[in-house]
Amino acid sequence: xxxxxxxxxxxxxxxxxxxxxxxxxxxxxxxxxxxxxxxxxxxxxxxxxxxxxxxxxxxxxxxxxxxxxxxxxxxxxxxxxxxxxxxxxxxxxxxxxxxxxxxxxxxxxxxxxxxxxxxxxxxxxxxxxxxxxxxxxxxxxxxxxxxxxxxxxxxxxxxxxxxxxxxxxxxxxxxxxxxxxxxxxxxxxxxxxxxxxxxxxxxxxxxxxxxxxxxxxxxxxxxxxxxxxxxxxxxxxxxxxxxxxxxxxxx
Length: 251
Hints:
Strand content: 5-15%
Shape: globular
CATH class of the domain at 7-110 and 180-248: Alpha Beta
Helix content: 40-55%
Number of strands: 6
Order of helices and strands: EEHEHEHHHHEHEHH
Number of helices: 9
Strand order of the largest sheet: 2-1-3-4-5-6
CATH topology of the domain at 7-110 and 180-248: Rossmann fold
Structural class: alpha/beta
Largest sheet: 6 strands, parallel
């Protein structure tokens, strides 16, 4: 048996998410693991109004210093949180023992301007809807998107006074249209990275297969029975895989 691991796991939720989204997946982690789950969309340093994609990795360094996280951490991010995790990794690879990307988009091809413009227009339309008075209708339509089909649970969301403002800022400041393609970074830092998707998430599983072909040594896994929303569809399986990554730190 390996020695106990004194390690910090930082977990980032997805779009429209809350720190409690991670509760079920992290329930069985070893007691020696310190877990930090920031409400980053509202954090003074990390929120989209303060830190756009171009400086989010640096903002994450500032946040770590503020939180007293001086040693390298394990960083896990789901969906939007996974994309932000890639920005943090790019800014400071030495700051991480592992980076786990769940249902994460590596980025559109840098040269595909048509796809980027289409995504920009799509995100702007969602931003307009989420900033309007019919927020519940926008949420219902968001959840009806094909990417979420195949999942077994739809997360409950609570509207707070600043929810419209925060949601809109995320869509505009952290749009996939503004994100570089991270495949070169993934290839360079493949030993640190873990890339997990849902078995029933056709779009992201296809992307994961393509990424695995391009980066053969990357840890790519498809969680059995899960759709895009891994935190809800397969929290126990996800927890076991997280424990595997943590256990590797004891070897």
